[in-house]
Amino acid sequence: MSLQTREHMRLQDGQYTLVRPLERSAWSDSFSEVWWLARSTLRQNEQGLASTERLIAEVRAPLTGATLTKQLQPMLRTLLALQGHPQHVQLQDMFSEHASHYFVFASPHGQTLGTLMQRNSLLEEDVRLCCLAVIESLHAFAHVQAQQGMASIAHGGITPHHVIATRSVFGPRWIVSQPSLLLASSVMNMRGEAHVSSSVFPYYPPEFQGQGGDTRADLYALLACAYHALTGTHPGRQRQDGGAIPQAQWLNANISTQMNAVLAKGLHPHPEERFQHPAELYQALGGEQRSLEEAHNSQRRVLAAAQSPAYQRQGVAVGAGASSAPSGKRPSVQTAGWPTPLTFEPAEPETKTLLPHPEDFPPLPALHEWRTALCWLGGIAVCETALLVLAR
Fold this sequence. Notes:
With 392 residues, this protein is α+β, with helices and mostly antiparallel strands.
């Protein structure tokens, strides 16, 4: 993490307090990204202060205000276009302090896939439904990028601790959190700087270096998470000479033949032999009952319901076992306990949004305190020299 930013530091005049760092990703000494768990203090009428959790992404890049805003604008457009999507975290604020740039997101409440893996409470059906939901999220992410005229860029945030199971009024739902902002903005692709250290990309393919890559890298990471959840072993630790990974059934005989085949294809050592499109993996995992495009068309109805006053009043209630059905049976995609597969679709043209456009944001200021300090020190030294000369 940066020297300026530390735990318990207050930002925005005390509106946000950093609790602890969650993930760190660095491409060089100048480009880095740190995700923080933070508390937001909001004043509520006469009820005093209320503290709520937030996710804050700290981005450090040696780019001045207008240049940085231009570089991050594609990513900002994507995040704003996904506002209201039930399977993505929501951007709430952005500002600059301490030579860093901060992006504030709502913190989803629930149990991460990693937590459920540690408890050994996942069955193959749970993992399959989780994969279907994440594929829909990635499809929405790529769809919005295409609408913005961008090439497909990897999400960069597919790990067991970034996929969260929550329970909403629509039933259990999987949310993808903490995208890699520098990666998704393509800043690193244009600079060509290789990734040097991270706790974010351990599930991505071996050839992935924190730059380049598209949705296919995310699909590999998703199946690597599924492999780990079903076998209890990270696939990277099982990689043999030539890059091959042992069959999942060799480590867990309870894995079905269909799932074993999906994992073998998706984690193939040769990229051209893997799944090349989200729809291909979606159908291989049993999403053939309704295609990914059909699921895409269903989003308008559910997104409108999620924005209704009744839904907002009820909020999200998280159960202790978000992956289990109350009756003890594992629900299928078609049962009422689980929502129908969802992907994002833009609202109708007549729908108006109060969210600002990325170009309406003021340029992020260029904060170079060290340059200012050097100027002050130089000025003081000149004044002292002049005083000594005059004193003689």
